[in-house]
Amino acid sequence: MSERIGITGANGFVGRAVTRALLDGGREPLGIVRQSAGPHSVRINSLDAITPAVFEGCASVIHLAARVHVMNDAAADPLAAFRAVNVDGALKTADAAHSAGATRFVFVSSIKALAELDDGRPLTETDERRPPDPYGVSKAEAEVMLQEFGARTGLEIVIVRPPLVYGPEVRANFLALMRAIAKGIPLPIGAVTAQRSLVYVDNLASAIVECATHPRAANQLFHVTDGEDPGVAELARRLGHHLNRPARLVPVPVGILKAAGRLTGKTAQIERLTGSLCVDSSHIRDVLGWRPPFSLDAGLAATAAWFLRNRERSEKG
């Protein structure tokens, strides 16, 4: 092992992939986790408990810990709840990393810090931030405040914005889509051609490691995708191929879907389903020379294979 790199949220979906990528690259990951501290981790109760001692010997810190976007948020004040973790927690972690002597802080944000849909062209890092919800607002505020912190202290801030992340052990909407396809449930998305950028979790991990270690990544903001933007219906068909169960897609006109959304109070969900979210990730390729190690099809195949191996458990999760 040569270089120690701290990772908050190391037990999470992306954190586990980043830990593997660091180990495969001969680097020493130090996971900052809330449960089951192992040989490469330190256990803390919350981000409030982070001190400089936690990051002793770390050349850089990757910050993944966050309050994530959830549907039907039960918090009395969702924005305040997101800010407490995603803004205040990120700044406290950056301050502890800097005090411990780390020279770089990689903040894994979200494309929601920028927007939820594109404006007819792929979103770039220089576009104006227009976050669509409290989660996106908290991520956008954290980006700005961390950049200001870096300017004051000299800590190199690198921001990574992924779109939807998928891969083995994925949850939420992507898992629900696989379940529906595997069960042969008809899906009314056959006429939805809107394109969506995605990133396979191991591609994202590869990019994050580059951001933590590459000299030219200092103080940059990067979008990270698989580099291919499938349409919604195309994505379902490709998943069906890998699940050995052709997707049953009903070509309901988009206008009817939107009308149904208005009638059922699900306009926002239908807009997300039928709207385009394409993300330009050429900046990280140009600056760092990074390329995704896995194609979109390889990522979908690995995700579907995991689902089929663990179908009974994943259908209960």
Automatic annotation (TrEMBL):
Coiled-coil segments: none
InterPro entries the UniProt entry points to: Epimerase_deHydtase (IPR001509), Lipid_A_modif_metabolic_enz (IPR050177), NAD(P)-bd_dom_sf (IPR036291)
Boundaries of every NAD-dependent epimerase/dehydratase domain copy: 7-218
Full protein name: Epimerase/dehydratase
SUPFAM superfamilies: NAD(P)-binding Rossmann-fold domains (SSF51735)
